[in-house]
Amino acid sequence: MSLFGSLQIASNALQATQIGLHVVGNNIANANTPGYIREEVLYSPAPVQEYGRLTLGLGVEIDAIVQKVDRFLAERTRGAASDRAGAEVQSKAYADLESLLNELTDTDLSTGLTGFFNSIDGVADAPADISARNLVIGKGQTLAADIRRLATRAVDVSNELDTRLGDAVEEINQLTERVRVLNLRIATSEGGSASASEAGGLRSERNKAVNRLAELVDITTNEQPNGALNISVGGEFLVFDGLRRDIATETQTTDGLSTTTVRFADNGKELNLSGGEVFGLTAARDDIAGTFIQTLDDFSGTLINEFNKVYSQGQGATGFSSLTSVNGVADPDAVLDEAGLDFAPDKGAFELLVFTEGPDGSRSTDVTDINIDLNGIDGDTTLNTLAAAINAVSGVTASVDTLGRLSISADSKDVTFAFNGDDSGALAALGLNTFFTGADARTIGVNSELLGVSNAAKFAAARTSQTETEANANANALELSVFFDRKLEALGGASLADQYDQMINEVVTGATIASSVTEGFKIFEATLQGEEQAISGVNIDEEAINMIQLQRTYQANARLVQAISEMLDILVNL
């Protein structure tokens, strides 16, 4: 082995040490750079050389500069990030609904319900007091407005979640395009060899994009031998080498509610997701906000229809001289329970009471049973046949107007009419002598027949029969005042109060569970991130130790070069 060979070994060692110092310096410089992955130099002994009977080493060589990555751990961390991101969105949706309900305050819906039914107690105590009736109507308007406002805000929450879906899809396409471009640059930079040095900066940038993509959708990654990273979602590839697929949205709007579906743009196939923000947004929109809106609609529908069933059997201070149903049908000849009414009536009957005032101030009452035949056999009741049955009663006239509404009027000024004993729900379904209007939380209101100070006397506090007694004056108000806690067949024996409590409990319980699940995912993700940082993160103390070791190695090799140089000088001077 010549001195020149030894000098070459020392020179190679100096170069290797310089590269090592460069990598250490790069690590230290990026210690606080988000997404940076620590790099290290892979050293290996150079090939040996036979020198007589001796085998001599030829120093050191650098195999590659690679990133310190546990790919299995990185995949697990991305999966945890997807779960956490999806859970956070759902937890936030529950928190938004809780703030809308605003329970335990003076502005919550339960306060409005209590105020409304308490005001009916005032009418029951003083049925002759018109101001008490006017208070009930005012409280009813306030309650209806509170329900509408709550429903509108819940719809806003749902639509906001849906809008964020579109924003998320746009970001997904931007990220996948970024990964596609970086795949090409990395493959070109690394030369397509798995054993070559890695393009650390490009890989860190790609890793940052992939991590963000994992928060949006639950992805699976697979690195190829050429350095490209393939990404799939639900078994469908999203990025493949230098190719990618666009994600598109399809939005439909029904009753003010937007529903966006996320699909692959090329084949229209819906993404199969189980985690990530997109999954969380969809679940929050449909299962959280959507379920709450439906539950609120069910509660409001029960309040409207069941309250009206009781209310419609009473009457105000006087009977009606004329009355038109609030609700109409598209086809007056259609069977009543198939005519498109928001609430379908059942088979049964109601009493039509016709009052006739005599010249001496006396009053006679004629009671006629109006049958509602809905047994599915020929002759079922339609709006036209119902009008005909009422029209056959002496003293009143009934007809169906051009809007498909039933109109009833007295034949003379001495005649008025009222209703009683309706077990079919036809009066409530048609909107004859009802308090509430609408069909759900967004349409609930108070019958315009009752609005205005002069109409307050129409509030149906009384129950009318052929034998008038003083007790009849507040009989209906007494029934209505306990309605909130009354067991309802429509709710399987539960009360409206039970239904309301269940609605609130579902939100509160869901919020608590969602918050706990989110916290669990956060802790799990933080644990994985800690393990990943222990491998891939830059530790200044470790880098300082490596720097000192390389410095000492460099100094030793420099001293070796100096010694060989001195020996060569001696050899030349011989």
TrEMBL record:
Pinpoint the Flagellar basal body rod protein N-terminal domain residues: 7-36
Its GO CC terms? bacterial-type flagellum hook; extracellular region
Cellular localization per UniProt? Bacterial flagellum; Secreted
Q: What is its main location?
A: other
UniProt source species: Posidoniimonas corsicana
Q: Does the keyword Secreted apply?
A: yes
The terms under GO molecular function for this entry are: structural molecule activity
Q: Where is the Flagellar hook-associated protein FlgK helical domain?
A: 96-319
Q: Domain of life here?
A: Bacteria
What is the designated name of this protein?
Flagellar hook-associated protein 1
Q: Is Phosphoprotein included in the keywords of this UniProt record?
A: no
One biological process GO term for this chain? bacterial-type flagellum assembly
**Domain Flagellar basal-body/hook protein C-terminal: residue ranges:** 535-574
Could you list this entry's UniProt keywords, alphabetically sorted.
Answer: Bacterial flagellum, Cell projection, Cilium, Coiled coil, Flagellum, Secreted
Q: Which residues form a coiled coil?
A: 158-185
InterPro entries the record matches: Flag_bb_rod_N, Flagellar_basal_body_rod_CS, Flagellin_hook_IN_motif, Flg_bb/hook_C_dom, FlgK, FlgK_helical
Give the family from UniProt.
Belongs to the flagella basal body rod proteins family.
